[in-house]
Amino acid sequence: MNFASDNIVGASPQVLQALSGANAGAMAAYGGDEITKRVKARFNEIFEREVSVFFVTTGTAANALALSAAVPPYGLCVCHREAHVIDDECGAPEFFMHGAKLAGLPGVGAKLTAESVSAYLKGLPKAVKQMPPKALSISQVSECGLVYGLSELKALGEVCRGHGLVFHMDGARFANALVSLGCTPAEMTWKQGVDILSFGGTKNGCLMAEAIVVFNKDLAEGLDYRSKRAGQIISKGRLISAQFEGYFEGDHWYANARHANRLAKMLSDGLIQLPGVRLAWETQANEVFPIVPAAMDKALRDAGVLYHPWTELSLPEGEKVGQGEALIRLVLSFATQEEDVRRVLDIARSAGSRQAAE
Amino acid sequence: MNFASDNIVGASPQVLQALSGANAGAMAAYGGDEITKRVKARFNEIFEREVSVFFVTTGTAANALALSAAVPPYGLCVCHREAHVIDDECGAPEFFMHGAKLAGLPGVGAKLTAESVSAYLKGLPKAVKQMPPKALSISQVSECGLVYGLSELKALGEVCRGHGLVFHMDGARFANALVSLGCTPAEMTWKQGVDILSFGGTKNGCLMAEAIVVFNKDLAEGLDYRSKRAGQIISKGRLISAQFEGYFEGDHWYANARHANRLAKMLSDGLIQLPGVRLAWETQANEVFPIVPAAMDKALRDAGVLYHPWTELSLPEGEKVGQGEALIRLVLSFATQEEDVRRVLDIARSAGSRQAAE
Amino acid sequence: MNFASDNIVGASPQVLQALSGANAGAMAAYGGDEITKRVKARFNEIFEREVSVFFVTTGTAANALALSAAVPPYGLCVCHREAHVIDDECGAPEFFMHGAKLAGLPGVGAKLTAESVSAYLKGLPKAVKQMPPKALSISQVSECGLVYGLSELKALGEVCRGHGLVFHMDGARFANALVSLGCTPAEMTWKQGVDILSFGGTKNGCLMAEAIVVFNKDLAEGLDYRSKRAGQIISKGRLISAQFEGYFEGDHWYANARHANRLAKMLSDGLIQLPGVRLAWETQANEVFPIVPAAMDKALRDAGVLYHPWTELSLPEGEKVGQGEALIRLVLSFATQEEDVRRVLDIARSAGSRQAAE
Amino acid sequence: MNFASDNIVGASPQVLQALSGANAGAMAAYGGDEITKRVKARFNEIFEREVSVFFVTTGTAANALALSAAVPPYGLCVCHREAHVIDDECGAPEFFMHGAKLAGLPGVGAKLTAESVSAYLKGLPKAVKQMPPKALSISQVSECGLVYGLSELKALGEVCRGHGLVFHMDGARFANALVSLGCTPAEMTWKQGVDILSFGGTKNGCLMAEAIVVFNKDLAEGLDYRSKRAGQIISKGRLISAQFEGYFEGDHWYANARHANRLAKMLSDGLIQLPGVRLAWETQANEVFPIVPAAMDKALRDAGVLYHPWTELSLPEGEKVGQGEALIRLVLSFATQEEDVRRVLDIARSAGSRQAAE
Known about the structure:
With 358 residues, chain A is α/β, with parallel strands linked by helices. Chain A has helices at residues 13-21, 34-47, 59-70, 84-87, 92-96, 114-123, 150-163, 174-181, 185-188, 217-220, 223-229, 238-248, 252-272, 294-302, 338-357; strands spanning 52-56, 76-80, 101-105, 133-139, 166-171, 196-200, 210-214, 278-281, 287-293, 308-309, 325-331. Chain A folds into two domains: 13-252, Type I PLP-dependent aspartate aminotransferase-like (Major domain) (Aspartate Aminotransferase, domain 2, 3-Layer(aba) Sandwich); 253-357, Aspartate Aminotransferase, domain 1, CATH 3.90.1150.10. Chains in contact: A-B, A-C, A-D, B-C, B-D, C-D.
């Protein structure tokens, strides 16, 4: 019963098989092969336009490379103060951007609003001592499991246009957001003004396959060199593209994400029926953030359920984790079994009953 | 008949199987898993001492990260002027070292001698305008297919000690060098003064698995953070370690390297018996660098044999590629078929005969 | 009546004369001259021990270079969230530290306490995604005009030792702090655990002369190379050292700082006697931060008094700038005339009276 | 008799006076003052068009900043292998360019030809492993004292256009080149295709005043931020501009350069009349590079004449420094006395006579 993250299992069988199938025989190295060519064309189809695609092996590399194409070394990149790029990547963006700075703004549910970004930008001193803002980076799904709606994205896109910022989307859980909104990849990205996207594959079924998808052509210039000098161009390049081929085949990626989101909903719905349990943030994708009684937290851990505590930094105003409560995160993935969700709910329910009895 | 490089095929079956076998089930992410623990212990055994090991996905990343641990941003790293680090990595070392410089020295067969390195170091101005030398990087196997002997390594190691340099070995073809020398990994590295090693797995049978092996403990400090910020720590970390597990199992890596070296010898021996063919550099590992008549070059290409022309920059003094000749490189790998070697030799032989007849 | 900053005048006559006097004749370039040698010895005397000194032309360069010696590219430097290094240097520290990050903590009066720093450090995740803290940087005088007392410095020094951090002091207004505390340079620095100091000369009488003073010998290694590669080693190096020679001669620097601090006290004392005026932070050095009625603010500006509005971010808890009030900063320097202070007070007083009359 | 360099004296009296004259009174800091405004307008006049000007304190900073505006971090900058930027700046360009690489080409007299640059560019592999060339940097005057003629500059400018390179000129001795050619600043720069210029003032009479002059508007974008984050924006900014004001006043800079060049010619003409003396490279500006008998070298040194030995790396083909000979560099400046030149010639003559007599 491991709900620690969606990267604790390997690949989904279909992806692994695609990889194995592409293994034999000689092909051009460094992405000059046929599979890579096919997969790049597939990305064009998926996004309903020509895009530039660069394959990397980690989400951190995807984000950091994407931002390095968007922000000059003296620039500022606006993001949420709990964003993965600012909090979980050991300074990778700063490294790849050569010292450019991330400005972390507050926001409920780890989401930014057009208003708060706009106000922040207007308040910046107009002086050479102030690094000039050059990009906005948001996480779709957010770090609190929320999904930006299309109108929210549109509004952020307009702020970016208005202030000359590149709009970057960290889509480590892109598929989960997509099936949550029920829109097309195009609608969730460039149609709202997104310029460059970190397109995650690993969390939703690949072994190690992430892509940078560039909508704004200018940003693609030199990105291959940047990737090479970051040691991110795999010599046996087809082994990344093959994963994506399996991932896309028969809308496998949608199916994986739907499964994870559905189980998250199931877990979430079950939990909030229990006394003393409420959600820190609505369950919109494949993560559940309940605030539970400490006793329930303990019971779950004692039963061997694995998950992480979470920070209350981005709770809605007025909301608080009380004494005797715990805010936790449970992540569901393509590989999670429905039965495991039921067992977790059973354990939680028992803990609740015991507590009521006491 | 693809002899372009040893990265044009996928993984060897045994490695692929190890990867597949490690795919199912949940494990701690980011290298906190059991497989990774086992493989790290295996590295200690292989090198007959405690070593620090960091897994990455490309040789470029391994080299660049290793050098970043060795050279401060204002330092100089001495290498051969045809070294992979200076010539083939799009500035990755300079990126990871934050602007530190590579000084490329000449040397026959892309090898450096203790004498030439020492003379170079002594000739450097003692002034603040001169970046101070901090590391020496050599390629074992060299870019011209030569293998440093143990006494050569020892002499270079002593120069490093004498001048306070870190000694780095780019072992992209580590196994091929090892079976060529018939020595132990320990003898080829730290016993001769090597401080830090890029240990290649990809070219000799892995999908994408390289390791930085650190003998000098001080250099390991912070390397995990450096790797993380370079986007090189795979979330499903076991999928790299599992490759190494398969690679080491039953001395599979030795077998792979022996096969490649043996076929190289076979190809080399066959070629030099043909009229007008001579070797630019002795065949010591899994690469053959013949100088062939232009007609033979053409015949091979026409027959669909794939390989690269090579530069004559590091030919022995006095040696030259004449008009009507071509210096080419043929690379043999674990996956090369003996039959392919025979076919190449047949084509070359026919071309030679035809030419003689004309 | 320019109170905008302490860098709006040129040099004090004594410093200018020292510069002029050192101008003629040939001397070794790049700091190899006799004057530089003498001044470095003078620094040893001033700090009552051997120190390493590096001359630069701006405070930003001093801070950024000092931090680059203290923090590896993957490290974290803790500072106040309004610190000059994080807020006013356009990312110079991040540039010189090659992407290392500044973590800005809150604190009244732009000061940090040992408790808050300690709590922050303890709260950091122990994981490779988290950049490890490597240095603490404080501003003495703080950005709100406050001076750390010796016991406060000592406590911060102990936190640094306990967590393995380098302790950096931004002493852009070092002399003003010194005469405020009435202690020795040694007592205000290394005796409390400061490892490396940005020693400002420009704001207190030099043209462009700042020094990095290193107490922890290890941090001096390579700093000359770092400075050279930052374009900070002036070819006619004596022209910086000569400024310091004039600056130190006859305790000129103390006299300059005493003058500025005394006028600040005079201005401050005068202002708080006026109705509706209070201090945001106590006047401890050469800057005054009054909260004044908007009408007084307007009157001062109308009369041509130059100064900057200030942020209320670091006000004491519960304190606020009300509607109809303005928080402003007035900076006094060695060149400020007592008469100008009187004129400002007169204007403020009249404004106050007029307002009372209305 | 110090001929070591043209940075071993302070400022010329006229420049020093301009600095002193600008010292008193309050003005806007960070270059927002009237003097700076005036001097920038003066640059427009001098170059007969609108230019962007950025003031810095060292030639190294000027070069490194200029190149950072021209070359992305993954790019290549072509220069002569003895160029100041590659050889004498401790990696400043690599630091400011964030790891971009300098490619040093050979060339007689430390000059590059359009042919050699063009051939080099054409020979570069078209592959992502190869950093793409983005700029050409030349030194006018060259490191061997030679001056590029207008047609040579034009040809290099055309190569740059043809290959999409930014054309940078290191004009540390700009004035000396200018009076040597007898052309206008416009003719020596943008009219031949120069995009960005390091305009030296220090060697020809300033204390510490260099400027980056940008002709290609695109390159000016962000350069103020780059300069600020490099710690190169002096707070008392007028103190740099004032130097330039004095420097330009009454064509003082021309007079200084003419004086230095004239004395160089005088020294050069005198020396080559002596037996056994010849010039390594023609004397075209303010440096003399004679090859002299070892005995003469010794006699000069014994008499206290200060100068540097020089490398023979860029001698014309076939030329060599023989045994018993020394290649030396003597630099003349605005401050050199004619009498000193005569004394040097006397000493050299005596040494020659003595040797003949023996």
